[in-house]
Amino acid sequence: MTHSEVIPQAPHVRLTQHPTARNAAVARTSLRAGTTIATIPALSTSLLPSEKGKRCDACHVLQADDLKLRRCSGCASFWYCGTACQSNAWKLHHKKLCKNYNAYAVSTEYQGLTPHDQVDALLLAQMVVQDGARWRATDGPERPGDSHATFMDLLKGPRADAFGLPLCLPKGAVATEATALAKELYSRFGNNNFIVHSHLNAYAHGVFPLASRLFNHSCVPNAACKYIIKPSEAVVMQVVALRNIAEGEEIAIPYLDPALPYQTRQDALESNYGFGCECRLCTFERDLHPVPAPPERGSQSLRDLEAALRSRVLGPGGSSVRIATSPGLFESLTTELRPVLHESYLPALSEAFSKTSHEGPYREAVETGLTLLALYVMIYPPNYPQIGLHALELAKTVWNLICTMGAELSEGETDVLERQTKAFLDIAESVLRNFGPEGDDGGPLEEIAVLSNLLSGAAA
Predict the structure, then answer these.
(1) Whole-angstrom Cα distance, residue 241 to residue 244?
(2) DSSP SS3 for 84
(3) Burial of 366 (0-12, 13-18, 19+ CB in 10 A)
(4) Maximum distance among all alpha carbons in the chain?
(5) Which class for 54: exposed (0-12), middle (13-18), buried (19 or more C-beta within 10 A)?
(6) Which of 71, 272, 316, 414 has the least CB density, counted as fewest CB within 10 Å?
(7) For residue range 183-196, what is the model confidence (pLDDT) as tens digits?
């Protein structure tokens, strides 16, 4: 892939030199927030065990009242939404896996794998049994639009020699040839595969070679991946601009959650990809080391800390909420607020919000959720989808407070809470419309519309 080459699946991108990585994907022209930068079909995907029987194994559409999945009549272990998906999967790989799959799935070797590795083992088997001529034809220069060639052109991961997955092979397959191909493919798995998600809930693993070839990682990304699910069609990844991107600016995506603790991110990137990150967030957190632990949950010291965080990031309070429009808000973090970056803080805060938002008390849930929103806004770049999803959850929590308290609220209190709900819905809608429709039907954009209508009715 040359620097001047126009890439049909990513026409807004060109490759250029990078000081440490293989290349950098930069914008050919200035791009507005919400622009679809690349549209990349999957080379292969495999559902998580928890999703089997709930989704079509080919196109990933969910079973519904008006859509019943059909089991493969051979192995009874794969489900399809219709004859088109079943026929496509049969021709692509399932014909060669069907008869042996059940014995393979109950084998000691397969059962001894972690759930993550079980998914990758099936993903690998599907790729190995695809038309061998496609893999043999990958020798030579990379060809635009050829996903097999692009995959084989990817760099091998730091654990390239650690192949140990059992193979599901068809009868008559030459084990030595299949194993050799499997080793070549697997050497590129750990550092190039993607977790496929719907509304940020993981449900599959997938191979999208062009995305792996083009986009480097940043914990302060200006783009993010989403997945488009359509009946009887292969899942497609779209890379979306989170903010305006200047001509010549590198386009980077997150390989992991930027809200993970600094050392966790560094260890995962080094182990899976063979590099350490030196983005703005990592550089800032590295210089803070060691991060002081936060006060004990429930203490006045922690309440004061969280009030200061909310005020600094979101504004002084009330029904208006201020959201940063530029990345790097964490760089203005004062010394007394640094404990919120401790590895123990976010998990404890998330657990507290999850518990109170479902069980109450809802006033406490609103305050905890507002603190979590402040933390997300501080860490994540503008328009990061997690901000929008959490803002929606916070709006639903305030609405639950209004509905459960009812007559106990004064007219003034109700008015403030309704304006808070509207403010959180506005944040959610702005962020998630920028990200655009993705994943399963329904989802957060429809939830926003429903809650907005309820709020309008209550205010009428």
Answers:
(1) 7
(2) helix
(3) buried
(4) 77
(5) middle
(6) 316
(7) 999 999 888 999 99
